[in-house]
Write a structure and sequence with these properties.
This protein is mostly helical and about 100 residues long. It contains two helices and no strands.
């Protein structure tokens, strides 16, 4: 309850201060807007760069996974080719029935 009363009092005093010092408020506001824009722009650039880095990292990881899958598939194909080669040699070495 005290927080509510304190908040209401702060709003009331702020409104009174704004009414009496509105010209000074706008001077401060005009001086603060470029600083706020500058800081907001810096933050946006930082977040954008971080997003680009994350996207590049994800692409590299995806490429590594695809490369590993391709290597596994190649190993399976080599093993299957070796097995077929052995079967072919076995068939060639067997005597033909006449």
């Amino acid at each position: 309850m005290t927080v509510l009363a304190g908040g209401a009092a702060a709003c009331f005093l702020g409104l009174i201060g704004l009414l009496f010092w509105w010209r000074e408020f706008f001077i401060i506001l005009k001086g603060g807007i470029p600083i706020i824009l500058l800081l907001g722009g810096i933050l946006a650039v930082y977040v954008g760069l971080d997003e680009v880095r994350d996207k590049m990292r994800e692409e590299r990881e995806k490429e590594k996974e695809e490369l590993n899958k391709a290597k596994e598939e190649l190993e399976r194909a080599k093993a299957e080719a070796d097995r077929y080669r052995e079967e072919l040699e076995k068939v060639r070495s067997e005597p033909k029935p006449e």
